[in-house]
Specification:
alpha/beta, 8 helices, 7 strands, 30% helix
Length: 246
């Protein structure tokens, strides 16, 4: 996710002075040269490790117009109020400030979902918290008041030797079930899920899992930003353009 954010940031031809790393984890995001950076994470240890402050992404402790760049990797899909968090991010940006975000979206963990459906076919249980698809992500940016919003998705395919290794990864990235009323995983369910997961292996014995990374790009509104053309101001006919030659 950080690599994708860095690629998108490299394509922006402007400088930044005040940056917020929202969901800082270990502080591995490097601010643009010459910029000051503040870091925030909901986890106390992560906040301390990155030299930042502890706080919730949907309750930002920063004044409006504090930053000209805000980045967020891997956390926005896990907050209680995603529209509220995006609105606060937009308010914390100065006019024409940039927001770049990334998180796991709908379509992720399709293989594990299939394994759970097979293992719990008689009594299905909610094992995954809701995820945001790319279209909804773009709508959320617009609702939060961002200008020039863009949402795009990049799939990541990871191959595992067994379900246990995937579970370890999900715990390590804090991507397990976040539902309040989640049901505990019993030993029988775990064994059945692992067996169903193994049945989906490729010929070489490894199982492919999919992670769908949603990237968000949005700008805080500013009077000098490009504006869409006024409706009806076009001078060329679409019908004429699409008409076959001759």
């Amino acid at each position: 996710m950080l690599d994708g954010i860095a690629e998108r940031l490299d394509s922006v031809k402007r400088s930044f002075t005040d940056v917020l790393d929202l969901g800082s984890f270990d502080g591995s995001f490097a601010a643009p040269a010459g910029a000051r950076i503040a870091r925030l994470d909901a986890g106390f240890r992560f906040a301390r490790q990155s030299g930042g402050v502890q706080g919730d992404e949907d309750r930002l402790p920063f004044a409006d117009h504090s930053f000209d760049l805000i980045v967020s990797a891997g956390v926005l899909d896990q907050v209680n109020d995603v529209p509220g968090a995006l609105t606060l991010i937009r308010r914390a940006l100065r006019p024409d400030g940039l927001f770049l975000g990334a998180f796991l979206g709908a379509g992720s963990l399709s293989t594990l979902r299939a394994a759970f459906r097979s293992a719990e076919a008689d009594r299905p249980t909610a094992r995954f918290h809701p995820q945001i698809d790319v279209r909804s992500a773009g709508d959320l940016l617009m609702r939060a008041g961002f200008a020039l919003p863009v949402a795009d998705a990049e799939p990541l395919r990871v191959r595992y030797g067994n379900a246990g290794r995937l579970f370890d990864d999900l715990r390590g990235m804090a991507a397990t079930n976040l539902l309040i009323d989640r049901q505990p995983l019993g030993a029988v369910t775990v064994a059945r899920t692992a067996a169903a997961f193994a049945e989906l292996a490729d010929p070489d014995g490894r199982i492919a899992e999919r992670f769908e990374i949603i990237f968000l790009t949005g700008w805080a509104p500013s009077p000098d930003q490009p504006k869409p053309a006024r409706r009806g101001s076009g001078t060329a006919s679409l019908a004429a353009t699409l008409r076959p030659p001759g």
